[in-house]
Amino acid sequence: MNKSLLLKTTLAVAMATPLLASAESQLITAPTGSAVARLDFRVIVPRVLFLGVGTGAGGVVNNTTVDTVTFDYTTNAAAVGTGAAAAVISGAVVPVRVIGNNGQITLTATTTGALTNGTSDTIQWSEISAVSSLPLTLPSPIIPNSGVGTSSNVTLSSGTKITDRSANWTFSYANTAVVAPGTYGTTNGRVTYTAAMP
Question: How many whole angstroms separate alpha carbon 50 and alpha carbon 168?
Answer without folding.
Answer: 16
